[in-house]
Design goal:
By secondary structure, the protein is of the alpha+beta class. 39% of the residues lie in helices and 11% in strands. The chain binds heme C. The site of heme C has 23 residues, from helix 6.
Length: 309
C-alpha cells in the first residue's frame, strides 16, 4: 500500500464493548508500488524514441516519392456539425453522368439511393430509365433488354476488365463507388488529380495514351484530362468553372463512398447529452462514493489499554 498520511481526521465513537473507534483519512488509494522517477524517465524516453523513429521512417518514404501532396480543402462535410452539400451532390451526379460514366462504373450505387438525396423519386426513375439493362432469361430462355429501374445499379460502359483495358491502352478505369475511401488523401486527392494536369516535364517519357499529372503516383496517368471550364451546363445556374465541376463531382463521389456520414453525425449529436450524463454520474461516484471508501482507514483503540491492536 503506497498510501501516505497527509491528514488525519479522527471521529471517535464508543463501541458497545467499551472500545473506541477512530476513523482516520488517508490521502491516496493507490495499491500498487510507486514507480521510481528514473524508471519513469526510461519508459517515456523509449516510447518517444520508438515513435520518433517510426515517424522518421514514414516521412522519408514520403519524401522519396516525387508525388505532389494534396492540400486539405474546406469541404462542408468535414465540419463536425455539417452534412454534405446536397445541391453540389446533385450537380456532381450530372458531371459523373456526362463525363465520368463513359469510362467508370458506380457498381455499388443504385438509382434508388439517389431518391431524397439528390433527386425526387420521379426524377430518379427518369434517370434510371435512360439506361438500358440486359435482363433475363425470359420464358423462351433468351436475354432481353429493358429500360433501367430504381433498383438497378449504375454499371459501367464495359462488359469486363479486359474490354476496359483494351479501350484505355491497358489502363483500367477503377469503379468509383468507393474510390474516395480507397485513395490516400481521399476527396482532396481526387480534386487535385482532376484539376492539375500539367505539361510533361523534360526527361519524363509517357506511354501510349498517357498524360502527366503530378498528383498521380509516378506522374504518368492513363486517364486524360477530362474536366474543363464550361464542360457541363448546370440547370441551377451555378458558374461551371473546372474547379466547380471537380468540387461537385468529388462531393458526389464522397457521398457515394460514405452514405451513412450524415446519420452518424446526427446520432452522435443525440448521444452527446447521454455521454455527458454518464460522465457526470461516474465523476460523482468516483469522487463521493469510491474515493472516500478507499481512503478511509478504520482503527480500533482499546479503552482499557489505551493502545492500538
Ligand atoms: C476516357 C476515359 C475516362 C474518363 C472520361 C474518366 N476517367 Fe478516370 N480513369 C480512366 C483511366 C483509364 C484510369 C486509370 C488510370 C491509370 O491507372 O493510369 C482512371 C483513373 C481514375 C481515378 C483513379 C486514380 C488513382 O489514383 O488510381 C479516379 C479517381 C478517376 N479516374 C476519376 C475520374 C472522374 C471523377 C472522372 C469524371 C470527371 C473520370 N475519372 C473520367 C479513364 C477515364
Amino acid at each position: 500500500m503506497a498510501a501516505r498520511v497527509i491528514s488525519r481526521s479522527y471521529s471517535a465513537g464508543l463501541l458497545k464493548n467499551g472500545n473506541r473507534i477512530a476513523v482516520q483519512k488517508v490521502n491516496s488509494f493507490s495499491t500498487g508500488p510507486t514507480l521510481k522517477v528514473d524508471k519513469k524517465c526510461w519508459i517515456v524516453g523509449t516510447l518517444a524514441s520508438v515513435t520518433g523513429g517510426v515517424w522518421y521512417a514514414l516521412e522519408s518514404v514520403n519524401a522519396s516519392d516525387p508525388k505532389a501532396m494534396p492540400s486539405p480543402l474546406p469541404w462542408t462535410h468535414k465540419d463536425l456539425l455539417k452534412g454534405y452539400d446536397h445541391a453540389s451532390m446533385r450537380r456532381g451526379y450530372e458531371v459523373y453522368k456526362q463525363v465520368c460514366a463513359s469510362c467508370h462504373s458506380l457498381q455499388y450505387l443504385a438509382y434508388r439511393h439517389l431518391v431524397g438525396q439528390t433527386h425526387t423519386e420521379e426524377e430518379a426513375k427518369a434517370e434510371a430509365a435512360e439506361m438500358t439493362v440486359v435482363d433475363g432469361p425470359d420464358d423462351t430462355g433468351a436475354m432481353f433488354e429493358r429500360p433501367g429501374r430504381l433498383t438497378d445499379y449504375i454499371t459501367g460502359p464495359y462488359k469486363n476488365e479486359q474490354e476496359a483495358r483494351f479501350t484505355n491502352n491497358g489502363a483500367y478505369p477503377p469503379d468509383l463507388s468507393l474510390i474516395v475511401l480507397a485513395r490516400k488523401g481521399g476527396e482532396d486527392y481526387i480534386f487535385h488529380l482532376l484539376t492539375n494536369y500539367t505539361d510533361t516535364p523534360a526527361g519524363v517519357k509517357l506511354g501510349e495514351g498517357q498524360a502527366y499529372n503530378p498528383y498521380f503516383p509516378g506522374g504518368a496517368i492513363g486517364m486524360p484530362q477530362v474536366i474543363y471550364d464550361g464542360l457541363v451546363d448546370y440547370a441551377d445556374g451555378t458558374p461551371n468553372s473546372a474547379s466547380q465541376l471537380a468540387k461537385d463531382v468529388v462531393t458526389f463521389l464522397t457521398w457515394v463512398a460514405d452514405r451513412s456520414l450524415e446519420d452518424r453525425k446526427q446520432i452522435g449529436i443525440k448521444a452527446l447529452p447521454i455521454l455527458f450524463l454518464m460522465f457526470a454520474g461516474s465523476w460523482y461516484a468516483t469522487r463521493f462514493i469510491f474515493k472516500p471508501l478507499k481512503t478511509t482507514k478504520y482503527e480500533f483503540i482499546s479503552r482499557i489499554r489505551k493502545q492500538k491492536f
